[in-house]
Write a structure and sequence with these properties.
- There is one protein chain.
- With 163 residues, the protein is an all-alpha fold.
- The protein is built from 5 helices and no strands.
- The N and C termini lie far apart (42 Å).
Length: 163
């Protein structure tokens, strides 16, 4: 019976390590992205998101959610792109660019257009140009934070001999 429990422990450890691998980049990005919380409007946005009234859980949840396109791109690259030559390098750069578009353009549009239509009215300033500028700046900052490791990996994979 000891062998069976060792197998279960090994399986659980594998799942925990996989979970950590997927959560860690989002947590690091959340830590590096915290200066956006200096803005009262962005704090109001995160307080309005579920769980309503709780800044930290919704902020961390949003940061983890924004990391999904980057993680999906890395997983798809490893799974479907041939590692020969600079193919992984090119795919990682494409992932960084696609993730940047999503975080710098799609996420701000969702925050300023979709959330109010869903009944989550978070901007006391009225969703004007300054709100859009603030959201795009926050999205660009997140994109830069999330793309930096991908560009570093792309550089390594693009070197002669690759990895």
């Amino acid at each position: 019976m000891v062998i069976g429990s060792a197998s279960v422990v090994g399986e659980a450890t594998g799942w925990l390590l996989t979970l950590a691998l997927f959560v860690l980049p989002g947590l690091v990005a959340a830590a590096l992205w915290t200066p956006i919380l200096l803005s009262t409007r962005l704090r109001a946005l995160f307080r309005a998101l579920p769980p309503a009234g709780r800044l930290v859980p919704s902020y961390v949840g949003a940061a983890l959610g924004l990391s999904v396109p980057y993680l999906a791109g890395v997983v798809l690259t490893v799974e479907f792109v041939d590692s020969a030559g600079a193919a992984w390098s090119n795919a990682l750069v494409e992932t960084a660019l696609a993730g940047g578009i999503l975080t710098a353009l799609v996420a701000p549009a969702a925050a300023a257009l979709a959330l109010p239509r869903l009944g989550i009215d978070w901007d006391p300033a009225g969703y004007g140009p300054s709100t859009w500028a603030l959201l795009v700046a926050a999205g660009l900052w997140y994109a830069a934070v999330a793309a930096a490791p991908l560009f570093a990996l792309a550089l390594v994979f693009g070197l002669p001999g690759g990895y």
